[in-house]
């Protein structure tokens, strides 16, 4: 399978690659426009690029000229990000636009996943975030039913490899061994890629619905092979080639499942600059904030402020005017002429 995909009349595919300190656009649809200019992209803003081409807003503007304003009415139906650790470049045959990466810090697609969850909770989005070797898994929406049988623990991954229809029977292992734990971890991650395609193909209706889907996969098996055998070893070279072939096939199959309207991104990074830490509040934060903010300045301006201000302001003005008009009319009402109660009473008195 080749990583780049063929265009059809109405559907397109975007395949993105990030190789070491390079962010490469291998193919883009008409609805997503990337400019060729070699502008560096900060590593921590890669999720924002994904959010923008999916059609979502981001909290902080992205002053990066590489991504142009595309077609707002035709957005990709899926974004797939595969992060490969332990190698600074994967040799891919496809040529495309490339951008250098500034400061390759760890990133996650949590913000994009949360946006999809909040906006499409009533529909059928599929959100899957998975790091097999670290046993990290996060599923939202229909992912729980689609990927119910997916191997997510190390024991499940190992058992899956020794079943009849696993990749051990079809892949040329070359110098890799089926008796070595490091080799088996690497191969089990490739098995996960194949199983994702297999399980998703049984639920093709989810790939054709209107809610966007998100897949974020982190593979560190190649990094372990590099540490165990050395990066000049035949095993590392063979594993790299097997990984490239498998990723190309995976990208091609995901593209086809979504009718050509899918985005496949790939990040190959030798080593991240700093560990990924979740933002958490600490009980010591209040005491620290005094030193950070000695002048008691207000918090930074939020772009939602003007929207909320206008909603509240005009609602208050409208309610105040309504109260004044109603009060004035009630005060000046002629009971004999305006009120149906007095009118009915007068007629009854006359009849008696």
Automatic annotation (TrEMBL):
<dbReference type="GO" id="GO:0038023">
    <property type="term" value="F:signaling receptor activity"/>
</dbReference>
<keyword id="KW-0472">Membrane</keyword>
<keyword id="KW-0812">Transmembrane</keyword>
<keyword id="KW-0256">Endoplasmic reticulum</keyword>
<dbReference type="GO" id="GO:0000421">
    <property type="term" value="C:autophagosome membrane"/>
</dbReference>
<keyword id="KW-1133">Transmembrane helix</keyword>
<dbReference type="GO" id="GO:0005789">
    <property type="term" value="C:endoplasmic reticulum membrane"/>
</dbReference>
<keyword id="KW-0675">Receptor</keyword>
<protein>
    <recommendedName>
        <fullName>Renin receptor</fullName>
    </recommendedName>
</protein>
<feature type="domain" description="Renin receptor N-terminal">
    <location>
        <begin position="20"/>
        <end position="270"/>
    </location>
</feature>
<feature type="domain" description="Renin receptor-like C-terminal transmembrane spanning segment">
    <location>
        <begin position="278"/>
        <end position="352"/>
    </location>
</feature>
<feature type="transmembrane region" description="Helical">
    <location>
        <begin position="307"/>
        <end position="331"/>
    </location>
</feature>
<dbReference type="Pfam" id="PF25294">
    <property type="entry name" value="RENR_N"/>
</dbReference>
<dbReference type="InterPro" id="IPR056780">
    <property type="entry name" value="Renin_r_C"/>
</dbReference>
<comment type="function">
    <text>Multifunctional protein which functions as a renin, prorenin cellular receptor and is involved in the assembly of the lysosomal proton-transporting V-type ATPase (V-ATPase) and the acidification of the endo-lysosomal system. May mediate renin-dependent cellular responses by activating ERK1 and ERK2. By increasing the catalytic efficiency of renin in AGT/angiotensinogen conversion to angiotensin I, may also play a role in the renin-angiotensin system (RAS).</text>
</comment>
<dbReference type="Pfam" id="PF07850">
    <property type="entry name" value="Renin_r"/>
</dbReference>
<keyword id="KW-1003">Cell membrane</keyword>
<dbReference type="GO" id="GO:0032591">
    <property type="term" value="C:dendritic spine membrane"/>
</dbReference>
<dbReference type="GO" id="GO:0005765">
    <property type="term" value="C:lysosomal membrane"/>
</dbReference>
<dbReference type="InterPro" id="IPR057318">
    <property type="entry name" value="RENR_N"/>
</dbReference>
<dbReference type="InterPro" id="IPR012493">
    <property type="entry name" value="Renin_rcpt"/>
</dbReference>
<dbReference type="GO" id="GO:0030665">
    <property type="term" value="C:clathrin-coated vesicle membrane"/>
</dbReference>
<keyword id="KW-0165">Cleavage on pair of basic residues</keyword>
<dbReference type="GO" id="GO:0030672">
    <property type="term" value="C:synaptic vesicle membrane"/>
</dbReference>
<comment type="subunit">
    <text>Interacts with renin. Accessory component of the multisubunit proton-transporting vacuolar (V)-ATPase protein pump. Interacts (via N-terminus) with ATP6AP1 (via N-terminus). Interacts with ATP6V0D1; ATP6V0D1 is a V-ATPase complex subunit and the interaction promotes V-ATPase complex assembly. Interacts with TMEM9; TMEM9 is a V-ATPase assembly regulator and the interaction induces the interaction with ATP6V0D1. Interacts with VMA21 (via N-terminus); VMA21 is a V-ATPase accessory component.</text>
</comment>
<keyword id="KW-0732">Signal</keyword>
């Amino acid at each position: 399978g080749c990583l780049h995909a063929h265009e059809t009349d109405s559907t397109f595919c975007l395949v993105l690659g990030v190789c070491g300190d390079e962010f490469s656009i291998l193919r883009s649809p008409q609805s997503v426009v990337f400019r060729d200019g070699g502008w560096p992209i900060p590593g921590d803003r890669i999720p924002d690029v994904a959010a923008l081409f999916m059609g979502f807003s981001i909290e902080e503007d992205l002053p990066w000229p590489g991504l142009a304003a595309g077609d707002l009415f035709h957005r990709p139906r899926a974004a797939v990000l595969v992060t490969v650790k332990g190698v600074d470049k994967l040799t891919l045959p496809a040529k495309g636009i490339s951008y250098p990466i500034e400061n390759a810090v760890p990133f996650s697609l949590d913000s994009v996943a949360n946006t999809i969850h909040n906006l499409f909770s009533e529909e059928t989005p599929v959100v899957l975030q998975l790091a097999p070797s670290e046993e990290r898994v996060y599923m939202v929406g229909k992912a729980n039913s689609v990927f119910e049988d997916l191997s997510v623990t190390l024991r499940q991954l190992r058992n899956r490899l020794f079943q009849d229809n696993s990749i051990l029977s079809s892949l040329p292992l070359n110098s890799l061994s089926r008796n070595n734990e490091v080799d088996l971890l690497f191969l089990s991650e490739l098995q996960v890629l194949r199983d994702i395609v297999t399980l998703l193909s049984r639920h093709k209706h989810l790939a054709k619905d209107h809610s966007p889907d998100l897949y974020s996969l982190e593979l560190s098996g190649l990094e372990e092979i590099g540490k165990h055998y050395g990066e000049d070893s035949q095993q590392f070279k063979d594993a790299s080639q097997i990984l490239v072939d498998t990723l190309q096939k995976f990208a091609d199959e995901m593209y086809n499942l979504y009718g050509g309207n899918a985005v496949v991104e790939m990040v190959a990074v030798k080593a991240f600059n700093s560990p990924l830490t979740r933002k958490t509040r600490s009980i010591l934060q209040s005491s620290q904030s005094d030193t950070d903010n000695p002048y008691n300045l207000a918090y930074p301006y939020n772009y939602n402020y003007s929207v909320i201000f206008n909603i509240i302001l005009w609602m208050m003005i409208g309610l105040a005017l309504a109260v004044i008009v109603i009060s004035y009319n009630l005060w000046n009402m002629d009971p004999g002429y305006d009120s149906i109660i007095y009118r009915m009473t007068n007629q009854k008195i006359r009849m008696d």
